[in-house]
Design goal:
The complex is a heterodimer of chains A (148) and B (358). In chain A, a hairpin with a 6-residue loop joins strand 2 and strand 3. Chain A has three helices and five strands, in the order αβαββαββ. Chain A has two domains: 31 residues; 92 residues, Alpha-Beta Plaits. Chain A is α+β, with helices and mostly antiparallel strands and 148 residues long. The N and C termini of chain A lie far apart (90 Å). Chain B has one domain. Chain B is built from 13 helices and no strands. The chains are: A alpha+beta (148), B mainly alpha (358).
Chain lengths: 148, 358
């Protein structure tokens, strides 16, 4: 009999505790994002992987050394690097130089392996997620700015 | 307090002045029936919308927002979608019973719905054993559920119907006991009279401890009676297909669905009527100015505010607790609610006999 009454009140207590949790939840701000309307104020999370980008500084230079590690790290063959050998005019040494960094968004699976492989932090993922285009060929993007 | 009876009496005298009395009564019955069904549908739509919004809020979501302002047209669209869907007849099912079952459920629900006093003078079915009639009418729904399971030629439907029936019949007892507790306090079974007796304080205050216990038991048992909340195992959405209405499609399914939601409203409004005073405004004896201000608010607003508050309470319970197993449900009923309800009834008798109530 004692355990019956004790169990009853214990049960009531735990039920009320659960109801307190949901009551708080009822009044907390809702996390739903109303996407097309909130485009202007939409805040993405930093770690969200939108698409691969290659940041350039104000002179239009990137950090890529055309080592090809990202291309090798990519499991889908998404990245294609075209490079050329140039001679440094000061030291006279042969050096690889990036000509074209092609990235196919259509076959990217946003695994981050290329960013992890890069020794110079030349590439990173942006949080831009609006990728829809009308033809597949538009998904193949050249990431480096063409230097003339 | 505006008496709606004046309007109905005026209509009656106007009608009898141009036609014979039986014809007038017949016409009134038809009009009231149509109004009742319309109100039934409107309340079902409001309930479904409210369910979706409240459920979303408890899960930190927004719920429907796209169709119409704040998603209000969403449910109406869903109703029209349901109306246009095909009603599939199951091979080797018992055609007659299969088609009859949803209507039995809906008839029970509408009859129980007609018992609710909405405002002063706005009672459709109101006679001296109203509580008894309400209990009887709402129990007919179980027959419909059992028929639905039996006639759809599907063993899972049948098992679902059996579980549903066992649960509803069990919890009927607790609902009855807690209503009986209030009947002991009021010494009347007429809903309009029950409401009138609460003019100087609602029963949950007048009956204090036993009334509060009865209220809690009523809410739990009522929730189980309409197969909702943590007691929705006969039709557990995420685990079973749908229980007794697995084989139903189109509007036949829609009738079960609507009946379930309106049953929830009926349970809530009966709770509001017998514990929270129905359409009776909040009166505190001694504060005449306050009472006069409360009387300005029309009765039906009080009624719907209370009823939807209880609906909200039941939804809060539904979206908080995990689902019970069948043995846990029956344990809760037979080992906890019924004994506590009986002791509570005795307590109420003692309170009434020794005049300990307010």
């Amino acid at each position: 009999m004692g355990s019956y009454i004790k169990g009853l009140f214990h049960g009531l207590g735990t039920l009320l505790k659960g109801m307190k949790v949901t009551f708080k939840e009822f009044f907390t701000r809702k996390i739903t994002e109303q996407y097309p309307e909130n485009r202007a104020t939409l805040k993405m999370y930093d770690r969200f992987c939108g698409e691969l980008t290659m940041p350039h500084d104000e002179n239009g230079n990137n950090k890529c050394i055309a080592c090809g590690l990202c291309q090798m790290a990519c499991p889908n063959g998404t990245i294609r690097i075209t490079s050329e050998m140039v001679t440094d005019p000061e030291t006279g040494k042969q050096k690889k130089r990036l000509v074209k960094y092609e990235y196919d968004l259509g076959s990217c699976m946003f695994c981050h392996l290329c960013v992890n492989a890069c020794p110079h932090d030349a590439i990173r993922f942006s949080t831009d997620f609006e990728h829809a285009v009308f033809t597949r060929s538009k998904l193949v993007k050249t990431l480096n700015k063409q230097q003339s | 307090m505006f008496d709606f009876g004046i309007v109905t009496n005026w209509i009656h005298t106007q009608l009898t002045s141009v036609m014979s009395e039986p014809l007038a009564i017949f016409l009134e019955c038809v009009v009231i029936g149509v109004c009742l069904l319309l109100l039934y549908v409107v309340i079902a739509i409001i309930m479904i919308y409210m369910e979706r919004k409240v459920c979303a809020a408890f899960q930190c979501r927004l719920g429907p927002t796209r169709v119409g302002p704040w998603g209000t047209v969403q449910v109406i669209c869903d109703v029209f979608k349901m109306l246009t869907k095909e009603i599939i007849t199951i091979r080797h099912s018992d055609k007659f019973l299969y088609n009859l079952a949803p209507y039995i459920v809906i008839i029970a629900s509408v009859t129980a719905f007609a018992c609710i006093p909405i405002s002063r003078g706005m009672e459709i079915l109101d006679f001296n054993v109203g509580v008894l009639f309400f209990m009887a009418a709402s129990s007919i729904g179980i027959v419909g559920i059992l028929l639905a399971g039996w006639s759809s030629n599907n063993k899972f439907s049948l098992i679902g119907a059996m579980r549903s029936g066992a649960q509803m019949i069990s919890y009927e007892l607790s609902v009855g006991l807690s209503i009986l507790t209030i009947v002991v306090l009021t010494d009347t079974m007429q809903f309009s009279e029950i409401v009138m007796r609460q003019a100087d304080g609602w029963f949950i205050f007048k009956g204090h401890i036993p009334a509060v216990i009865a209220f809690v038991i009523y809410l739990i048992a009522g929730n189980a009676e309409v197969n909702r909340g943590p007691f929705d195992l006969p039709e557990a959405e995420s685990e079973l297909t749908a229980g007794y209405h697995t084989e139903y499609s189109g509007m036949h399914f829609g009738l079960f669905y609507v009946a379930e939601f309106v049953n929830l409203f009926i349970i809530s409004s009966i709770a509001a009527t017998i514990f929270l005073g129905g359409w009776m405004p909040l009166h505190i004896p001694g504060l005449d100015g306050f009472n006069a201000v409360m009387d300005v608010i029309p009765g039906f607003i009080w009624f719907f505010a209370k009823a939807f508050f209880i609906v909200w309470l039941l939804m809060w319970i539904k979206w908080t607790f995990p689902r019970l197993r069948i043995d846990q449900i029956l344990t809760l009923e037979w080992k906890y609610l019924v004994p506590i309800g009986l002791v509570n009834l005795l307590l109420m008798v003692i309170v009434v006999v020794f005049k300990l109530h307010f």
